[in-house]
């Protein structure tokens, strides 16, 4: 599985041509790993350090010199040193003049300094060409070879020749460079490895809030209400029964929220009569994190599935089954079989399973390597057609679960309806609006708008132009 | 998760060297997204348009000119315009002379025009070097950065220098260009994004047909038969019981059909005594979609697993359990425990679970990113050894499920055997033939044939040559 | 899904520039597939062969010549011939002088010959530049296009210009070349496709040994003991009950073993007072296969989940439920409901489900394409924080399962405690040590050591230097 063949490699080059020499300042973990990897890929590596004590950890074949000696051996120098210690480079200004300095550093916190490390380096050594690169790659990944070609290395710098040299090295190491423009992009590139799931934050907090709300709601209805009215201790319901109400509700609501922004966007476009107006920021952000919302919803659906399958193992359920049978025996009541009840029970289970199956399919196709294999038409088919089918099946599952008792007043406790009734509001709204939107008359207008047509008469001329562009 | 750092980027290049300028004709969604992305990656972007009204949507820093003005600013021009509007380029023939024109267009339908858009463009502007590229990338993916380095961009064109220029731009955007040859390949490249799962069509229709057939078969045996003979309403079985017969049968049949073509190919090679004869087309096509067949089978197996686990929650099953107990109470019959029944019930469950587990493992290893990590020997081990083990376990699961009552005549209804008996035909056939094929005498002949040996005496000389090639 | 558009492609190049010509020696499967692929990507392909009989299988448009004729047509020659037949190349030494020879061969066994095939080739034809490449790619994958850009091609050779030429061809075929240095690396590269899951061997054997040990342990306690003491036949337990004890125990033990080496490493670092000393080899190897250990553990956890969910379908369980009810009816005993038992049963189920859910999440994030999307901080968060949470939940699940009867002597059989008690030893140990390690006083020392600080006073000066490096 792992490319272990890259771990140990021959150390000599008996080629007639001299290999390219690169210099690395700093013999810390990252410096050593980078040196090791470059050495493997055919480069001759020279380290710059204050002393050469820790040479046992360095790749054999590499040499360690003082900073200024090392700098003279190569025209490209990787600065694998913490920013706090950049000061000493000021003394080497002459040695570094005209050299390419590659800043690979990261800071522990976002926006810790007013300027990026790479820009700071460029100020310290004005005569050098500073390029930012490699900071998104970890020492461990470099050394263990746990990187494949799809790993991108963000590169930026003001001098395009210097940048090109660094990008060639990135490619030689089997990685993909991605030019990010001038050195001003370094701030972004340095912030990137410090982010913690920025796109997942909104779905996470939203689902946590939904879970909490519905948990409290269910506790009131299913634990506090019976305790107050009948003085019955149902606290044990908080372990399985209530989570198994909260999770499906959250899943269904989140799934509907995946499709709600698309519906809102369509209404906005119909209302404004053009697609050439930006959506409000909240809608843009919402649309960008639809995938994450959907995957969180899938997580809750998965939990719901297991919590449901575990039901017959629970002590409470087994006890109730025994108790029902015993009661029938004692009261000598008949236990007739109702086909309609069997239909009802089986159909909501079946619809739920099919919905869950499609949901899992959606989840699998959103794996990066799978969605990469699909063309745009296939991706749209999966995410839109199959997605709506999933929403329809899951909503039908909840509707069938309710069945007849849906809005019967006997189910109200302290005027609170069952939690799943609340869960149905957003999905049903989305489905109804979507149903209206796909009716031919409205759909055709929408299609024309999305192809560039505009309703305003005065702009009809330019619209004709707009229409001609992809 | 998402490379959000690419969304906002610095807009100035304070490099001493002038960045390369590219020109884009058309300010539609794709033109703008492409411009935005190229701008991010350090290019200077110029738009050509009839008017400059919609400039608010264009990346700031980009300039909009008339077509002929814009064309003069760069020697590489992206034509982000619908094919229907190419006509106007005829007037610009002089401006476009000697320029590289990149055709990024797609058509709404497959084979809509006699020639590809790129070839049409080359006819319109004979003095330009036309290159087809980027049509498989969506505007949305370009803008949102939801592309990684493993995304391939198909490129074709008659002039290799022009093609090289375009491929360099593709690489600079962090994508992988794939040279597809001359401009005649444009037809294929333009059809590619219009395909809808071409490899999945056969497995999909086949499984749909199998499902339908077995569903009707089961309805006749389990619903119509009891209704006719005993006047019993068992329609509710159509919701869970019958799907849970149909899905495993379809899964097992499809899984066997994954291994059948390999067995047929081996027999053909043994019969013909050479591997240097093409297989019939149907066999070739069948072999190419084995992976898809297997994944569809896995889907059905997954459904079978959930439908089975849901059994004890069903109203019908709970009622039957209560009923059995009540009957025992009333008739005061003893309820002895049979170890053999326990063995039988537990062993078919256990074998089924292990088979399903291996099946899921096979599915995971067929994910593109996972199979990419494996070498050829590992891939073969998984898909062949583990695959046959899965088939053996799943067939054993069905055989054990049947148990003693397998072919007892009492199980026939209207001369129809149980559905699972039909399900066993293909898997058992495949396993028996495979068992014969791996017997040393036959296996050795097969191995020799696959290494290039031929049975015909007259070709033995050339076979010797053939043997020497990989 | 599949890039079928690459299957059939135009055969003519009407470009004014002549396409580059490559020569392939050998018309076997690999030679043909390689020629086909290169032809698709715009190269002109010439085959060298002893005769041209099998031309029907060759890509149309390609020409077949004798070896020496073919060699004259191109300066780059792919040797798609088995090593045993290299001898004849000796006769062509003059034709091959100064040419680039690409060795694509593989051997059937690891270390079959004293030197690698590529080095042998270099000895045979001393005047040629030998480059090793493409041996990790299969003929089938080349022809079917089932390769994406993340597939790496290892390349090595002594002449960097020749290597560069080959790497350009690799890129043109849409693959990623990875320079592995001089021709001495060829041995490693040739061994790579012959490996069979080297990183999975230790986890596999370890888990097999654990399974076997616990299976025998459980058989003694649950089958032999009741047979000897009560003369009761419980052999049927070996099908489901005992596996369902063995699998969770193995899963929990393996999961704990994923986190044990990290804890040992921390203790070693604390004890040695430095991070600049290599860990013992066994610890290094153990740390490198943590991911594989974790995935094997997930497999067992998955099996445990299904074996558990299947419980209520088992004949034995159904019989026992009926039996319990019947006994209650006959003895007319009351069947009171214990809230505490309900709490206990529900809470261990709930904790187990949540633990399994997190475990599955960990497994998904270890998919190559998913972990590639994460930055280092996100990856650490998932694998460390979420990993420990999973371990805590799974350990709690086992502890709660035991409940009160944990160490009651009545549960001992032949002085053997229940198997799950043994399962808890390693997880509890790991969690207790980890808990001690994260206490502020110890954690701070550890953090300083990991930032380069050393306890030894004499090396404090160099430590200061070390601290400055990344």
Automatic annotation (TrEMBL), chains A, B, C:
GO terms for cellular component: endosome membrane; plasma membrane. InterPro entries: Fe3_Rdtase_TM_dom, NAD(P)-bd_dom_sf, P5C_Rdtase_cat_N, STEAP_metalloreductase. It catalyses: 2 Fe(2+) + NADP(+) + H(+) = 2 Fe(3+) + NADPH; 2 Cu(+) + NADP(+) + H(+) = 2 Cu(2+) + NADPH. Residues 249-394 form the Ferric oxidoreductase domain. It holds the Pfam family Ferric_reduct. Keywords: Copper, Endosome, FAD, Flavoprotein, Heme, Ion transport, Iron, Iron transport, Membrane, Metal-binding, Oxidoreductase, Transmembrane, Transmembrane helix, Transport. It is a multi-pass membrane protein. It comes from the Eukaryota. GO terms for molecular function: cupric reductase (NADH) activity; ferric-chelate reductase (NADPH) activity; metal ion binding. Its cofactor is FAD; heme b. One of its GO terms (biological process) is copper ion import. Belongs to the STEAP family. This is STEAP4 metalloreductase. The lineage of its organism: Eukaryota, Metazoa, Chordata, Craniata, Vertebrata.
